Every structure is written in structure tokens, then in C-alpha cells.
Amino acid sequence: MTITTATIPDSAPLRVDAATGLLVGARQVLSPHFDARPAGVKPDLLVVHGISLPPGEFGGPWIDRLFTGTLPLDAHPYFRAIAGTRVSAHALVRRDGEIVQYVPFGARAWHAGESEYDGRRGCNDFSIGIELEGTDETAYTDAQYEELARLAAALFDAYPSLGPEHVVGHSDIAPERKTDPGPLFNWRRLRTLVEERTALR
Question: Taking the CB of the first residue and of the last residue of the chain, which one, N or C, has fewer CB atoms within 10 A?
């Protein structure tokens, strides 16, 4: 019998490099799918997403390949359905807690699509998008909650325009199109962890 254990995340605070918008120490897989935010616009919304690729499967290189525009269409039948899709997120938290960054946090990632928050349309302009590897029908892991909270605390430090009161799901900003991160996502748990992390900084 093979026993596998999830990576235990480091408890030290994370840090965003102010000059580059990159998360220090994170694995970087930089995407071409981004552009500049509108002049003078700072991120003031954190959007939590859920993603699995192919749907319902975890692990593998496919999320990286999707966000970099290099998804091989012959690797899985589903990939042909999303051929040519140009999307990205600022970062992904994998099932074991590993954080992968695709777009500098100061830039505009293409994660929200048609969306609205508090009367403002086009949430990509003013938000940071974080993907969690998972599905609506699967509970997220302890490591993902811990690392998402650590990442959120680092983003609040780097961008004073952000704060715990403006953390939402993709379903909150595009309710007619999206359901992620899904009904099993524990918002109370995340908010408690974020408060703890923020208090330690």
C-alpha cells in the first residue's frame, strides 16, 4: 500500500514584491493572457474561483497549459471544447497547498469574464483572481484554506486598497454564469483564518 501525504504549508508570512507584483518564493508560470489595468485603478476586490482540468480531475499540468495558451487539444476530449480560450488568473492554490502565480498582481488577469460587483462592471479591472484546484462537489483541503489565507494577508499588505471585507466568490460577481467556488467552500473558515493571519502581521 502506498501512503501519500499532502505538503504541509510553511507558516511564515508570504510577501509580494512591490516592484514586480510577484509572490516571493512562489512557482512562477507566467501567462501571456493579461494586460494593464485602467489608469489609476488599484485592486480592491479578491475573487475566489474553483477549477479542475479536465473537469473533476486534479493534478497534472493542464491548468498551467490552459493559462499559458499551450493546452494540447489531443490530450483529452474536453480540451477541444475550450480550444482558443484566452483566460488566466493571478494565482492558483493546488490541492496540496502549492501556490502557482501566472500574472503579476498589479496587472489585469482575465479571470472574471462578464461580471459586476457593487454596481461596478468588468471586475477584471479592479480585482485579483485566485483559483483553487477543486470542484463544486469536492471539499477543499486544509492546505488550500491555510495557503489562501496566507496569500490574502500578503495581498492586503501589498495593496492597501484590498481588505477582508471585499473577498468574494466567482458566483457572487457572475451569479447567472458561475457557481464556483461552490457550496462546499467554507467562507466562515476562510474569514477566520484571514483574521488570524492579518492579526499576526
Answer: N
**Contact criterion met (CB below 8 Å) for 33 and 67:** yes
Reported in sequence order, the residue ranges of the chain that DSSP labels E, i.e. its strands, are 27-28, 34-35, 45-51, 91-93, 99-101, 108-109, 116-117, 120-121, 127-133, 167-169
User: Would you say residue 76 has pLDDT above 90?
Assistant: yes
Active site residue 98: no
pLDDT in tens, 31-67: 999 999 999 999 999 999 999 999 999 999 999 999 9
- What's the mean per-residue pLDDT of the chain? 94
DSSP 3-state of 99: strand
Spatial neighbors of 82 by CB under 8 A, at least 6 apart, are 66, 71
Question: What is the rounded distance in angstroms from the CA atom of residue 49 to the CA atom of residue 130?
Answer: 6
Where do the structural domains in the chain lie, given as residue ranges?
Answer: 29-200
Cell, residue 93: 492554490
pLDDT in tens, 142-180: 999 999 999 999 999 999 999 999 999 999 999 999 999
CATH of domain 29-200: 3.40.80.10
Among 116, 131, 147, 165, the active-site one is: 131
User: Is the pTM for the entire model greater than 0.70?
Assistant: yes
Give the three-class secondary structure for 81.
helix
Q: Which three cell numbers stand for residue 76?
A: 483529452
Residues sharing a CB contact under 8 Å with residue 29, sequence separation 6 or more, in sequence order: 64, 67, 68, 100, 101, 102
